[in-house]
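Re: weekly structure request thread

Next one in the queue (482 aa):
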Amino acid sequence: MTIKINHTFLAVVVANVFAIAVSSCGDDFLDKNPKLAVTEDDLLSTEELIDATMAGVYTRFKNGSFAGGGIAVIFDNRGDDYANTGNNTYAHSDTYNMTVGQNSPMNPGFFQAGYLAINAANTLKEALESRSDLPISEEKRQQYIASCLFIRDISWYYLAQVYSQPYVYSPDSKAIPIHTEAVVGPGHNEAPLWTIGQIYNQIIADLNASTIAALPDRSSADFDSTVPSQPAAHMLLQRIYMAMGQWDDAIAEGEKVTGFTLSTSVRDLFDAPYHSGENIYSMPFTDSERGGGNPAGYISSGVGYIDTINTRTGIVSLPEYHLATDTRTQFIKVDPASGRETWYEKYDENNVRLEWVHIFRYAETLLNLAESYYNIGQETKAAALLYQVRVRSIPTGDVVDVRTLTGDALKTYIYNERRAEFMGEGIRGLDIARRAENFVHPAATRTDGKWDTVIVATPDDKASYCWALPAFEVLVNTSAAE
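Done, posted below.
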């Protein structure tokens, strides 16, 4: 990881500071000499500037190559409910084919965006921890320190999902270089590769009870689903514990996510207003941020788009997930030229691209709990949680009462409900890797009238299952060449 990370973070902060300064000054602004050099002391000199610096950290995480859309694109392309029909590596053809190498075009951008967010979080965290004379309350100082830890940890989590084999396959699998301190100058390129087990344990240690308590909770009148919160931290821990197979701990974290409700329709979550009872944590966009950062650009209603829905062997090919009364089928779009179902359009504001990109929503909490309860043998409770999500989208005309399911049938419906509920949001690719399953794609052949599938990567073959660390990282960080 190179020194330019810190400079880029400072540029974001300076932009935020400048915007605040312009909006808050009087008519004599142009008569004053602007300050061209911004130091750490300047950034911590007022509450307004500290707020802007924290916003700079959030902006780093929201980068279009990372949480602002890139994550959804990457993990859906790794999954099996879409088919990438092109050969354009800039449109994730190598992600889909599980052939991402050191110099694959989308690899460096994802890696760098993640580490920019990590370093921004570490930089502000250390500044807040080292100063006792800040012009903010102790409550806000602790909240911002906890927010920095959350951004660092969730960035580690997403990076580890593509660069490491799954924890349940090998907790000792080498994952990514870890910087627990800010990179503020030369001589910090060396960073050891931590195992996925070490990373998960560090996240658990970071997000301890006192850290989470410093974050806002759902009961706050001004709860904001666009910033780190107690429910978002519990959701991250819930995912971590599920990935580790620690189901009781996953249940404990999920049960702490309270005060949320399912929206009347999934459609509501992708149209304004985006603050809803289901929205736990999302990346907001404004018209000035339109562009490739929002996933609207990757799943869109335009003939010739590369990412199309897998109608051969994907979740929409199953009759029980393609019911006329299932409101989620409204996202399926038909190519007018061919008359075929081709696109899945959750993000449909194709001109302005203002939809918020969801990271955590309450439907995931419920389905995470359903899977966790199933794995400890509480099938009745698991089925009831599954039913809550399914009946929201299929209020009438369902072909199965999931509350009556047991055993493997119940597990299959829990897994498939996750696929149907989160299409276009990247969860499927995360689930496959978390369970150490094979990555499969639709084949061009049929057997007994059904489309075949082909295995494109297995967890025992790290070279195909995982991305290679970018060439620039291996060049400057000899530890990464292990």
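The beta strands are 82-84, 174-177, 193-195, 279-283, 307-309, 332-334, 341-344, 357-361, 439-447, 450-457. The domain at 4-296+355-444+452-481 is CATH 1.25.40.390 (Serine Threonine Protein Phosphatase 5, Tetratricopeptide repeat).
Next request, please.
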